Amino acid sequence: MPRDPVYLTTPLFYVNAEPHLGHTYVTLVADVLARFWRARGRTTFVLTGTDEHGDKIAQAAAAAGVSPREHADRVSALFRATWDAAGLRYDHFIRTTDAYHVAFVQRVLADIHSRGEIYFGSYRGLYCVGCERFYQERELVDGLCPDHRVAPTEIAEENYFFRMGAYQERLQATLEANPGLIVPEGYRREVLALLREPIGDLCISRPKTRLAWGIELPFDSRYVTYVWFDALLNYVSALAHLGRMELWPAAEHLIGKDILKAHAIFWPTMLMAAGLPLYRRLCVHGHWQMQQGKMSKSLGNVVRPLDVKARYGMDAFRYYVLRDMAFGQDAEFNEDSLVARLNGDLANGLGNLASRVLAMQQRYFDGVIQPLAAEPIDLALRSAFATAARELDAHVEDLAFHRGLEAVWRALDHANKYVVETAPFTLAKDPARRPRVGAILHELCEALRTAAQLLAPFLPESAERLVALLGLPAARLEDLELPWGAAFAPGHRTLPLPPEPLFPRIEVPAA
Ligand code: ME8
Questions:
Q1: Confidence (pTM)
Q2: For ligand 1, atom 19, which residue shows the shortest CA distance?
Q3: Tens digit of pLDDT for each residue in 232-247?
Q4: Which of 412, 414, 415, 396 is nearest to 404 (CA)?
Q5: What would the pLDDT profile of 422-431 be if each residue is shown by its tens digit?
Q6: Is 34 part of any domain?
Q7: Which listed residue (208, 241, 257, 294) is catalytic?
């Protein structure tokens, strides 16, 4: 039976900052999930892109001395080029300035306006440009925006409002009835708590006299819409444009906790007003902190993905962020921890196992795989990998990537102990034991093949290198049903070890 498709989205990144660790993390999670599910027979589609309208983009462009469009073109291209260079794959890259998106937003606005869901009114409120939204007094901390730690600006003007409050009860009932709609669970509870107070209506416009850099309202050319009413619709406009609306019910939005309210309250009520079904789930991750606190240009501690890639390789970067952040919680980015993961888990745990096995395979059998003769200790090794595969599936379903990787490393630790316990290097000295040495190495080659398959979504380059060293085609990586023992045909040869290890260790200067 064909499995459900999965439609993964990242936030659309503002073009007022260059791609950094936070943007990379969420895009990487989309890439991992897509690779993971594709190998398990599901159709996948990843959407990412850039959010280009609004005050803060206009301000960033003015500061750079260029027009908003020139600025957006430059930074949007930089995001794309960065994901391409980092090997983060997506199926479509949307810009909120794309003509089809602008037309779609205008169609939705005209439609819901005609049904009385949008009204004109005057408003006085406290606005944070960093968040591009109004704050209620009680949401502020010491009078400051809790995220940007700046006092919001008081704005009084006539604007258009979306009757968001009319959907409050329906949203609350939906959230209560669907425990898996927002994950991890703590965020669903946070949203339910917000819904205990009136949510009010949503201001969706700006007079052009104050902000021209937005999408013109189809029913009043003096006004534009910007950011939320504009950007959130991207998740649907891209599918409508590509003729892939069948994917919409399979939507899983990946977002950071900073934009929870927009995605858990604004967006579902907009969908209700537009008569569209809700997304399948909202997956909310925590923030990367730096030792000095927040990552910011002014502190000079912005982590650029391609710098990290150049220093440690993309796979080590991928492994570190997925292994050290529990999805949903905050984590601290620290290069020493990255190096410890690289030298420990990757170089010692996996790389060393691969090089020992492949070296013995070459030395004793010229690379030729030897026939199989399973003993109880071999069956225990097989079962360790079968357990890891089951646990990995369950953890990835729950977005607990760190636990999934831990499960695979338990199997790799088991394999390293198996080498010590079976001691093929000692047995090999006795010609009579050579067949058993061959069988042990065959078991270990199967262990490496299985590890490469399980790890391919997380460490795509290394997994490809590993199967190539085992003499297998890259397509084998997705062949998850292959039974243990079936990967290597009689006479199959593994390759000689190349001089450069799978994961070169980083020398740490003595303290
Ligand atoms: O909010 N740690 O765009 P944005 C982890 N345009 N993730 C982080 C992070 C950090 N320190 N900083 C940013 C916007 N992120 C809107 C979204 S969606 C229709 C519109 C990630 O450029 C995280 O996923 O500020 C966060 O939600 C996103 O970048 C915000 O990106």
A1: 0.95
A2: 232
A3: 999 999 999 999 999 9
A4: 396
A5: 999 999 999 9
A6: yes
A7: 294
